[in-house]
Amino acid sequence: MNNHLLPHVTAILAISLNGKISIDTNTPARFSSTEDLAHLEVQISLCDAIVFGANTLRAYGTSLTIKNPQLLERRKKESKPPQPLHIVCSASGNLNPDWSFFAQPLPRALLTNEIGKNNWLKLLQSQKLIAEKKTFFEHFFLSNNKVKWQETLIKLRALKYHKIAILGGAKLISSLLKENLIDDIWLTVCPVIIGQEDAPNLIDNSLFHEGENLFKLKKILELRQIGNEIFVHYLIKNRD
Ligand SMILES: NC(=O)c1ccc[n+]([C@@H]2O[C@H](COP(=O)([O-])OP(=O)(O)OC[C@H]3O[C@@H](n4cnc5c(N)ncnc54)[C@H](OP(=O)(O)O)[C@@H]3O)[C@@H](O)[C@H]2O)c1
Q1: CA of 76 to the centre of ligand 1 (A)
Q2: Are 79 and 116 in contact (CB under 8 A)?
């Protein structure tokens, strides 16, 4: 794989001490601190695009926008738009136009397939929303039924999205990890233990085959403690 054709991909997540990312799939993860939210905002501000899975959007109904004036100023100086492109990954296109996400002041894209795109457009049509000439997304990136990640990332890099953050959830992270497409990961280890039976793990184990069960990370790039949380930045793969 020619790494130079790929954007830089960083995963960013908060995890419980026992490796869970939420209480259940339908629930937003609200167990990290305001420092973690500020950290997430900084990391997002360094990106040209961020990607999240449809279940994550279903759980939150909204996305994190950059509000910190210093971060906005820095983006302006670097001739970047105020907000990175927010890319929702959904094979089904089964999303809700009433979510606050669609009213947030940010550029949006849908990464889907022909069926998913048609489902979304049909839904808008049925709610007479298409008549307002709104598709709610500025861009549609189309792939096969299952996203071909390498192809998609190469396309994004060619469109000048050089730095991309993957914000979860487990299914999305797993599909990229499997293909060795994540460069590094920021984890915020939070002082909670989640005992719920169906609580999602950092990765979705069902998406891995036998023999794919051990991923050794290269090294720690940064490590700090703020309050009772540990912020750790791991290198997953070397570029060359
Ligand atoms: N702690 C944290 O930092 C953090 C961050 C983000 C999310 N979360 C939590 O994570 C949970 C959601 O995670 P999750 O694993 O259930 O779901 P997810 O990865 O957010 O979303 C899964 C959905 O995204 C689409 N998708 C993902 N990968 C795909 C692929 N390779 N090809 C095509 N479509 C793909 C599909 O959408 P369709 O179903 O529409 O086809 C799939 O059902 C929530 O509880 C949320 O709170 C936690």
Answers
A1: 31
A2: no
Which secondary-structure segment (H or E) carries 185?
Answer: strand 184-189
Q: Per the confidence metrics, is the pTM higher than 0.70?
A: yes
> What tokens were used for 115?
């069926």
Superfamily (CATH) of domain 3-235 = Dihydrofolate Reductase, subunit A (3.40.430.10)
Q: Where are the domains of the chain?
A: 3-235
Q: In what order do the strands lie in the sheet with 139-142?
A: 139-142, 108-112, 85-89, 49-53, 163-166, 8-15, 184-189, 229-235, 219-226
List the chain pLDDT tens, one digit each, 240 residues: 677 899 999 999 999 999 999 999 999 999 999 999 999 999 999 999 999 999 999 999 999 999 999 999 999 999 999 999 999 999 999 999 999 999 999 999 999 999 999 999 999 888 877 655 577 999 999 987 778 899 999 999 999 999 999 998 999 999 999 999 999 999 999 999 999 999 999 998 887 777 777 788 999 999 999 999 999 999 999 877
CA of 174 to the centre of ligand 1 (A): 10
The whole-angstrom separation of Cα 141 and Cα 110 is 6
Which structure tokens are listed for 102?
């669609």
Residue among 64, 89, 174 to mutate when testing ligand 1 (max atoms within 8 A of CB): 89
